[in-house]
């Protein structure tokens, strides 16, 4: 892999862009959004972090600032970088459970995510809901992934997920996923 710009990002590296204002890159640390500070090379992936869905299934993109959108535009300017919106993450499971709890809320969430991707020329969606609780939440999550994957693939976009270690997805979900981020955590002390 070749290194690019002053950030030292590898051309094939996957970068996760958080709403705090920096790109967190495995092995490269944090790159800020200053002029010329985020030059991703061909083949890299980048993501814009959102908070997730609202309880009614509508997408909540309030944490995606104009600066993050500008970073996404810069990252994909060369044409070979795919930028995705990241949905979910630490502490957002309760709202996520409500957002995918019915066919109507799942449909609205999928529609909002697809529209956001289309409106900002994003390459896909990364879902980070690692710990659905119980059989019902797990079934709703699987139904949501199937619906979202079908919609994104019809639009030529990717669906990626971060999965926890506690419970595997049902077999029928795997056909809808393009990439899986396996999350493992070590004790912090």
Q: Could you name the key traits of this structure?
A:
4 helices; alpha/beta; 189 residues; TIM Barrel; 30% helix; globular; disordered N terminus; two-stranded antiparallel ribbon
Report on the structure:
The chain is an alpha/beta fold and about 190 residues long. The protein has one domain (about 5-180): Alpha-Beta Barrel (TIM Barrel), CATH 3.20.20. It is built from 4 helices and 12 strands. Helix 4 (about 135-155) links the parallel strand 10 and strand 11. Helix 3 (about 105-120) packs parallel to helix 4. The longest helix has 21 residues, at about 135-155. The relative contact order is 0.12.
Concise structural overview:
By secondary structure, this protein is of the alpha/beta class. The protein has a single domain (3-182), classed as Glycosidases (TIM Barrel, Alpha-Beta Barrel).
**Lateral arrangement of strands in the main beta sheet:** 5-4-3-6-9-10-11-12
Question: Could you give me the name of the CATH homologous superfamily?
Answer: Glycosidases
Which architecture would the CATH scheme give at its second level? Alpha-Beta Barrel
Low-confidence stretches: 1-46
Structural class: alpha/beta
Computed Rg: 16 Å
The tally of structural domains comes to 1
Helical amount: 25-40%
Q: Largest sheet, described in full? A: 8 strands, mixed
Q: Mean pLDDT score, rounded?
A: 70
- The tally of strands reads 12
Number of helical segments? 4
The CATH top-level class label: Alpha Beta
The end-to-end span amounts to 34 Å
Q: What is the fold-level CATH name, i.e. the topology?
A: TIM Barrel
């Amino acid at each position: 892999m070749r290194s690019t710009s002053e950030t030292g990002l590898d051309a094939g590296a996957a970068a996760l862009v958080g709403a705090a204002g920096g790109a967190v890159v495995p092995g490269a640390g944090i790159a800020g959004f200053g002029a010329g500070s985020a030059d991703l090379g061909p083949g890299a992936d980048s993501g814009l972090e959102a908070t997730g869905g609202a309880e009614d299934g509508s997408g909540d993109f309030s944490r995606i600032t104009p600066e993050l959108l500008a970073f996404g535009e810069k990252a994909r300017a060369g044409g070979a970088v795919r930028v995705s919106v990241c949905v979910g993450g630490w502490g957002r499971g309760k709202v996520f459970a409500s957002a995918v709890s019915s066919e109507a809320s799942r449909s609205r969430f999928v529609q909002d995510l697809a529209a956001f991707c289309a409106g900002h020329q994003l390459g896909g969606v990364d879902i980070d809901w690692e710990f659905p609780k119980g059989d019902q939440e797990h079934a709703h999550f699987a139904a949501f992934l199937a619906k979202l994957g079908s919609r994104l693939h019809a639009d030529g976009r990717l669906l990626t997920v971060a999965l926890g270690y506690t419970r595997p997805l049902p077999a029928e979900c795997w056909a809808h996923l393009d990439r899986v981020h396996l999350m493992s955590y070590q004790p912090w002390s």
